[in-house]
Design goal:
Blueprint (H helix, E strand, L loop, with lengths): L7 H5 L4 H13 L4 H8 L3 H14 L2 E6 L2 E6 L2 H30 L3 E6 L3 H15 L4 E7 L1 H21 L3 E7 L4 E3 L4 E6 L9 E4 L2 E6 L5 E6 L1 H17 L18 E3 L1
Parallel strand pairs: 4-5, 5-7
Antiparallel strand pairs: 1-2, 3-10, 4-8, 6-11, 8-9, 9-10
Length: 265
């Protein structure tokens, strides 16, 4: 016994319910007039006329004229299959140009503002997605106080660190001189900045993006997509990184890299 026809697939092909009904009616009946289509499908004549016009444009029906009357018939499934394959092949030839347009749109400047409890997860998600998309491996961070991040959203921080390690990404962090509350793992490198030069507002530089966090009630995050600005921030970070010094800690205190957590050194 044949399985019942799944008409929902025709919606994926861009046909309406009425167009589908008319196409299947013609497929079963062979060439017939508009009146006969209306009778067999149960649709109003005007609906049939309108649907036939669209089906003609989409290439699912055709007609012949006999004795001044139009007889409509369905295009065979094999022919439609070949037409769809031709469309797929045409799309493949356009794909490089479309991807180029998509890349250009991604590189357009933008500023997004977020507030509330989930801003850390939003920033972490954007960092990870941007690094994957741009095939980059490095995050540069200033103004970080790890204990504050851990107190606010420990889970988001831990997931972020695990993703960095899993994908062999590296973050370099500038923290206040004397700060001994750091996270474990080879995914993170630290350097101390003299207290008088330390900016307590966190900044993340990754790919062509910058994320800024502003502490307050509520907390805010700004994500800026601007490759030129990101490069300027990156140069500034690199200069400060060169003249800063590593924190004093014992290597055996940074061991449990598969379960990132806060460590007092």
């Amino acid at each position: 016994m044949a399985k019942p026809l799944d008409k929902s697939f025709f919606k994926e092909l861009g046909l309406t319910a009425n167009e589908t009904e008319i196409y299947l009616t013609l497929l079963k009946s062979g060439p017939i007039t508009v009146n006969e289509i209306a009778q067999r499908s149960g649709l109003h004549r005007q609906v049939v006329y309108d649907s036939l016009e669209r089906l003609l444009e989409k290439g699912y029906v055709a007609f012949v004229v006999e004795n001044h009357k139009k007889f409509f018939h369905a295009i065979g499934p094999e022919t439609i299959k070949m037409n769809l394959l031709h469309q797929v092949n045409r799309f493949k030839t356009l794909l490089p140009s479309l991807l180029s347009l998509e890349k250009k749109s991604m590189e357009q400047n933008s500023i997004e503002v977020f507030k509330g409890k989930n801003i850390y997860k939003i920033v972490y998600d954007d960092i990870f997605k941007t690094l994957l998309r741009e095939k980059s491996k490095e995050v540069l961070v200033t103004g970080i106080e790890e204990k504050k991040f851990m107190d606010v959203d420990a889970l988001a921080l831990e997931q972020h660190l695990l993703l960095l390690r899993k994908h062999k990404m590296l973050e370099k962090k500038l923290v206040r001189e004397g700060d001994t509350c750091l996270v474990e793992g080879s995914q993170t490198l630290y350097k101390w900045v003299p207290a008088e030069f330390f900016n307590p507002n966190p900044q993340f530089i990754y790919g062509g993006s910058i994320a800024l966090i502003i502490w307050g009630e509520p907390n805010y995050a700004l994500i800026i997509k601007n490759r030129h600005l990101a490069e300027q921030y990156r140069k500034q970070f690199t200069f400060i990184w060169r003249i800063s010094r590593p924190p004093k800690y014992k290597a055996d205190k940074r061991a449990n890299i598969y379960k990132p957590k806060m460590v007092q050194v």
